[in-house]
Amino acid sequence: MGIIQKAKLYLGNHTETKENHFDEKLRTRYYKAMKDKVIAEIEGVINQRQGYEIARVEEDRGEVIVKVKKGKKKLIVFTVIMVRPNKTAVDISVDTDTVLFTDFGHSRHVIYGIYEDLDKRLTFIGSGLGDELIKY
Question: Check: CATH 3.30.530.20 for 13-135?
Fold first, then answer.
C-alpha cells in the first residue's frame, strides 16, 4: 500500500468497497445465497444496530439505503447483485457527516463491522472474485 493510498484511508469522510480495492478487507464480498436472502440478512444486521434506520429497500435494483442518526451521522448504501444462481455480490458505500474534512477512518471501520456480521449470517465464498466468475 502506497503513501497516497494510506492517506486516503484516513483523510476523507467517504469509503466504499470495490472489486479490486488495495485494502483486501474493502473488496467486494461474495456470498452463497440468492439476492433476496442477502437483502433480508442485511436488513437483519442493520436492525440489530442501535441508531441505524433503513430508509429504503429497492429489491429490484438490489439497493438498501440506511441512515445512521446516533453518534456520527452516516449514510450507508448497500449494492446487492446476483452474479450467478446462488452467488451474490455485496458492495457497501459509507458517507460520514463530519465538521472536519475527515472521519479518521471511521467509515472504513463501519464497513469492516458490517461485513463481519454478514459473514456470520451468510456463507462467505470470497472477496474480489469478479474476474474468476467472468471466466466461466
Answer: yes
